[in-house]
């Protein structure tokens, strides 16, 4: 990758040993993600090479020895995902980065992470699928997989950046949400985010707000690893701290002991869902633009939001009352915002680089109040502002 | 898997090894005649003898009968997904290198679904003690073919006899670079304990195979029906050959079972030590540039 000059600057002394590279940079999204992870305190990275995410591992493999982080290139994504869970249990903030085919393999231990309540971050730089698909080209086909790909009825947290700056900011937010809610979080980017370069402003270290997991406040003999506080999140003891932590992927009780009964399953799975659902206001972010009097709302996420916003402005110039809702949090879904705007707008227009995934969620929430129209592209290239503008125009003439 | 039993009467005094157990979880789920119990007993005694602080002991397991062990021992216990105990354990060990990290799991977990992780961890020489209770079968799921099932054996998925040759797991570990390789059986408890002590005192990737009876799901279908038939087979047909070449220790029906401490490689840096050496080199080069 052509980040030579920036690399030299880091190598040439300015960044050696530094964990937060405060200042203005011209970075690829993938580099921004790697640097954000370092700034967020990530010191364990496990991964397996895959286009278009490899630059994250490459960059971290160069940076970690300078700052005392552990980088391991594993034999596959199954091992990578398992290792970041283990590392988190030992007390490190950990991360992996992959793309579609690797993301599929990670589903196994993503589920374990949910069940064991392990804070960690999984980056998916989406490419065209299914299967090997379009290794070097963009897509947004893994939205439903991020939520439902691992078996089981659980909530997950996923954020979608649309630019290198957002990739930086949301990677840090992914770490904070993972730590706060004791859950693996997913940064759902795409090839055109990972591989586009742009200005990234890294704030001073003391201006980056970081959250760390709750630790037990009781002595080991009173500690129950899965006894939640009022916020439904249990404090986390690490391996080697004398708490004799017992944890399993099986349905378990508050002690962490396997208890495969319907009653325990009911209690556990409700809590795993509710600890996220009850904090939806804290987790879900959207960006609204020109919505005050909008009759047509373009709902988009990730890099599609950039042409979408442009298209809305083009429509406004033509006197069409269009607005933009950009989903920053993909999961849990921004139900409240869609329901709210459904009462005002006539149509939700959903451009996305798949054959209708977030569209289904929007449609579900808008049902009865507003019409939902899908603008699908299968990936391979971004959708242009002009294409979205024409769709806005079409529905405005109906 | 045995059905849940209730304890008839409370024991009058504690067993010396009870301090390693989560006694409230007893009775355990393993069947009569199973070799997992004696293996864990030997392991706990070895930890005692070496004098490792219980708070520093981590037990990572995968899925299967043996996978349940991590929930019975009173140490940090991680019952992970099928086959992934080793990479999970690597994550713990590299972040907290002062911990004594042990992977104790079954043959299906370590050599079928987890085979790739085993050879790569050995190749990297990650500082782990891996103990495999090899019972030649998938016990928990009801006696299906394993990558260690002997030729001709019957299982619920080889009703006409197995035609696949089994792995010679000490040879696999040796060829992948393990610094310590041994094989014992769960009836050779003292030798096994000594072997674990020796392994616990070393650094790097250490592997011990423990042949372990499964009367219920292996013996029953292979003319070893009685609860102690397999134990008798282990005892009667085993020969101890410390230092034997691992290519010579393939298990075959009707031939002696070769047991012993086969491989001991000294002086090899562990993966963590290599990483720290690299870190030092990078830092020095950076400082020189500054």
Structure description:
The complex is a heterodimer of chains A (398) and B (290). Chain A is of the alpha/beta class. Chain A has two domains: 193 residues, Rossmann fold (3-Layer(aba) Sandwich), CATH 3.40.50.970; 111 residues, 3-Layer(aba) Sandwich (Rossmann fold), CATH 3.40.50.920. Chain A has 14 helices and 16 strands. In chain A, strands 2, 3, 4, 5, 6, 7, 8 and 14 form an eight-stranded mixed beta sheet that branches. In chain A, strands 11-13-12-15-16 form a five-stranded mixed beta sheet, sandwiched between helices. Chain A has a two-stranded antiparallel ribbon with strand order 1-9. In chain A, helix 2 packs parallel to helix 3, helix 4 runs parallel beside helix 5 and helix 12 packs across helix 13. The longest helix of chain A is centred in the middle third of the chain and has 18 residues. Chain A is globular and about 70 Å long. About 1% of the residues of chain A have low confidence. Chain B has 290 residues and is α/β, with parallel strands linked by helices. Chain B has one domain: Rossmann fold (3-Layer(aba) Sandwich), CATH 3.40.50.970. Helices cover 31% and strands 16% of the residues of chain B. Chain B is built from eight helices and eight strands, in the order αββαβααβαβαβαββα. In chain B, strand 5, helix 6 and strand 6 form a beta-alpha-beta unit. In chain B, helix 1 crosses helix 6 and helix 3 crosses helix 4. The N and C termini of chain B lie far apart (63 Å). The mean pLDDT of chain B is 95. At the A-B interface, helix 1, strand 2, helix 4, helix 5 and strand 10 of A face strand 2, helix 2, helix 4 and helix 8 of B. Strand 10 of chain A pairs parallel with strand 2 of chain B.
């Amino acid at each position: 990758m052509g980040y030579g000059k920036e690399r030299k600057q880091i190598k040439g002394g300015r960044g050696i040993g530094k964990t937060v590279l405060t200042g203005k940079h011209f970075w690829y999204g993938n580099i921004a993600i790697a640097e954000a992870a370092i700034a967020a305190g990530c010191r364990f990275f496990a991964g397996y090479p895959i286009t278009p995410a490899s630059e994250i591992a490459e960059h971290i493999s160069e940076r970690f020895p300078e700052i005392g982080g552990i980088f391991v290139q594993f034999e596959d994504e199954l091992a990578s995902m398992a290792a970041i869970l283990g590392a988190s249990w030992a007390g490190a903030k950990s991360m992996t980065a992959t793309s579609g085919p690797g993301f599929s393999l990670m589903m196994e231990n993503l589920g374990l992470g949910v069940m064991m309540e392990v804070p960690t971050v999984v980056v998916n730089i989406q490419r065209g699928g299914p299967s090997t698909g379009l290794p070097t080209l963009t897509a947004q086909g893994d939205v439903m997989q991020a939520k439902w790909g691992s078996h089981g009825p659980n909530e997950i947290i996923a954020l979608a950046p649309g630019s290198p700056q957002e990739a930086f900011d949301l990677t840090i937010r992914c770490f904070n949400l993972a730590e706060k809610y004791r859950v693996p979080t997913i940064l759902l980017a795409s090839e055109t985010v990972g591989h586009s370069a742009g200005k990234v402003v890294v704030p001073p270290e003391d201006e980056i707000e970081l959250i760390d997991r709750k630790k037990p406040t009781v002595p080991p003999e009173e500690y129950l690893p899965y006894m939640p506080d009022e916020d439904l999140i249990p404090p986390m003891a690490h391996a080697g701290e004398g708490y004799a932590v017992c944890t399993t992927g099986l349905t378990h009780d508050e002690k962490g002991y396997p208890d495969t009964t319907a009653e325990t399953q009911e209690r556990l799975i409700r809590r795993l869902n509710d600890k996220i659902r009850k904090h939806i206001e804290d987790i879900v972010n959207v960006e609204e633009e020109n919505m005050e009097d909008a009759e047509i709302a373009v709902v988009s996420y990730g890099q599609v939001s950039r042409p979408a916003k442009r298209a809305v402005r083009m429509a406004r110039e033509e006197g069409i009352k269009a607005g933009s809702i950009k989903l920053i949090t993909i999961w849990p879904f921004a139900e409240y915002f869609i329901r709210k705007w459904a009462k005002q707008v006539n149509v939700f227009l959903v451009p996305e680089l798949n054959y209708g995934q977030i569209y289904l969620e929007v449609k579900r929430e808008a049902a009865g109040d507003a019409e939902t129209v899908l603008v699908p592209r299968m990936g391979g290239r971004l959708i242009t502002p002009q294409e979205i503008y024409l769709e806005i125009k079409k529905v405005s003439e109906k | 898997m045995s059905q849940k039993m209730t304890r008839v009467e409370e024991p009058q005094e504690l067993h010396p090894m009870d301090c390693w157990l989560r006694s409230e979880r007893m009775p355990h789920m393993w069947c009569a005649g199973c070799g997992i119990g004696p293996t864990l007993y030997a392991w706990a005694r070895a930890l005692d003898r070496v004098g490792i602080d219980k708070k520093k002991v981590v037990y990572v397991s995968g899925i299967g009968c043996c996978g349940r062990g991590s929930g019975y021992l009173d140490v940090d216990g991680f019952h992970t997904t099928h086959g992934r105990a080793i990479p999970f354990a690597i994550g713990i060990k590299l972040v907290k290198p002062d911990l004594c990290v042990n992977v104790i799991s079954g043959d299906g977990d370590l050599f079928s679904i987890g085979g790739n992780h085993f050879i790569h961890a050995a190749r990297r020489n990650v500082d782990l003690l891996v103990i495999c209770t090899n019972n030649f079968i998938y016990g928990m799921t009801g006696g299906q073919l394993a990558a260690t099932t002997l030729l001709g054996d019957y299982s619920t998925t080889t009703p006409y006899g197995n035609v696949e040759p089994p792995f010679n797991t000490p040879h696999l570990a040796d060829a992948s670079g393990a610094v310590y390789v041994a094989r014992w059986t769960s009836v050779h408890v003292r030798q096994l304990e000594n072997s674990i002590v020796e392994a616990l005192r070393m650094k790097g990737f250490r592997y011990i195979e423990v042949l372990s009876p499964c009367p219920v799901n292996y013996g029953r279908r292979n003319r070893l029906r009685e609860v102690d038939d397999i134990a008798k087979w282990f005892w009667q047909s085993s020969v101890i050959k410390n230092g034997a070449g691992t290519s010579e220790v393939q298990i075959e029906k009707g031939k002696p079972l070769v047991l012993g401490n086969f491989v001991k490689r000294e002086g090899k840096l562990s993966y963590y030590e290599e990483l720290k050496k690299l870190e030092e080199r990078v830092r020095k080069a950076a400082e020189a540039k500054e």
